[in-house]
Design brief:
Residues 310-322 have a biased composition (Acidic residues). By secondary structure, the protein is mainly alpha-helical. The chain contains twelve helices and two strands, in the order H-H-H-H-H-H-E-E-H-H-H-H-H-H. The N and C termini lie far apart (83 Å). Bound molecules: 2-acetamido-2-deoxy-beta-D-glucopyranose (5 copies). One 2-acetamido-2-deoxy-beta-D-glucopyranose (NAG) is lined by residues 157, 160-161.
Length: 322
């Protein structure tokens, strides 16, 4: 029993010491390598291998963020590493002062290395990805990009939160904010906008006008809601103004009735034929319009008004751009 335990302890101890000596070896190797000159000439093959790895990483992250387009904001670090590896490859020399460029570039008509680089870089340029950043080399997003995604997050949160109730009414103001912010960028930059933004806006517009159908049938109800609330809001004002004029009229009447104490004669003598006119048959006006024609015409005007207001409302929420 005891000897067995001793054996185990011995084996364990031996194992430990072997392991620690191995670690020491590795450590001394590491420290030795860090003492080497800072930039040892690296074979061009190593630079090519590095370029291959970085191209692969960049390709992977582009494809992972291709639909919906988010690769501009997601792949910047891989893009920078890819650019750096290409720079290293083209600017380095071998031990024998042979430039790597002369080994891999312009040695045949295909120029595969250069073609690979150009094509991958094209994907970055094609998406106007530099436009997302105020300084791509430090991967700092521009204020425009930050603001856009702030508004974008607001409306998306709003829509997800109000999935049960009516998102069109609730999120209308968020949608308008995002939309007008994007239109402002577009006015300034034309079509050369960071594609992450363009795609996000496009998707939000489609979500809003096609999937949620917030344009056609909701806009009029929103409009009538606005009109009704405006009228209701104005009612007290109208009431006070009317009351004020009525009071003034009343005061003047009181003043008149105070001075000429006997009441004035009724304007229409009691047995005049005018008194017997039925209520509806008033005199036609100079143009021959009677009261009965009036409501119809005002109704027509009202209809026209709502029609034009409808159009401007559509413009506002930008539902024509799908
Ligand atoms: C490479 O060039 C450097 C200076 O440019 C020189 O000092 C060195 O001797 C050269 N090495 C070879 C192998 O030619
Ligand atoms: C971007 O940042 C780098 C590193 O800080 C700096 O050298 C460069 O000048 C900056 N570029 C611009 C356009 O600000
Ligand atoms: C971006 O916003 C920050 C803080 O809001 C501000 O300090 C900076 O000047 C802005 N940059 C530009 C280019 O407008
Ligand atoms: C809306 O959603 C966001 C993010 O999902 C969450 O932080 C927020 O609390 C939600 N608001 C409400 C009222 O549910
Ligand atoms: C917006 O989406 C539509 C439909 O998916 C597409 O045809 C159009 O090219 C997109 N526009 C942009 C700028 O991505």
């Amino acid at each position: 029993m005891k000897s067995e335990q001793f054996l185990y302890a011995l084996v364990f101890f031996l194992g430990l010491s072997v392991e620690s000596s191995f670690c020491q070896n590795l450590g001394s190797q590491l420290s030795r390598s860090s003492k080497d000159p800072p930039h040892p000439p690296v074979p061009c093959q190593n630079h090519l291998d590095q370029f291959e790895r970085k191209s692969k990483d960049f390709t992977t992250i582009i494809l992972k963020n291709a639909v919906p387009v988010t690769y501009c904001t997601k792949s910047v670090n891989d893009y920078l590493a890819f650019e750096q590896s290409y720079k290293d490859l083209t600017e380095s020399q071998d031990k024998n002062n042979v430039s790597c460029r002369s080994l891999y570039f312009n040695v045949d008509r295909l120029g595969v290395v250069e073609t690979m680089y150009t094509n991958l870089q094209r994907v970055w340029k094609m998406g106007f990805c530099d436009d997302c950043y105020s300084n791509t080399s430090t991967s700092t997003l521009s204020n425009t990009t930050k603001d856009f995604f702030y508004y974008w997050k607001e409306i998306n949160d709003c829509i997800t939160n109000s999935s049960q109730s009516d998102p069109c009414l609730k999120c209308m103001s968020h949608y308008q904010k995002l939309n007008s912010f994007f239109d402002g960028i577009k006015k300034e930059k034309g079509d050369q906008i960071c594609f992450d933004l363009q795609d996000a806006m496009n998707r939000t517009r489609i979500l809003w006008s096609v999937k949620l159908n917030c344009c056609r049938d909701r806009a009029p109800s929103m409009l009538s809601f606005t009109i009704i609330s405006a009228i209701v809001g104005l009612l007290p004002g109208i009431f006070y103004i009317a009351f004020y004029f009525w009071r003034r009229h009343q005061d003047r009447f009181d003043f008149l009735s105070d001075t000429n104490s006997p009441l004035p004669e009724p304007l229409i003598p009691e047995n005049s034929p005018l008194q017997n006119l039925p209520e509806n048959e008033y005199e036609p006006g100079p143009s021959g319009a009677t009261a009965s024609t009036l409501p119809r015409s005002t109704g027509a005007i009202k209809k026209e008004k709502t029609a034009t207001a409808d159009e401007s409302d559509d413009d506002l929420i930008d539902c024509n751009k799908k």
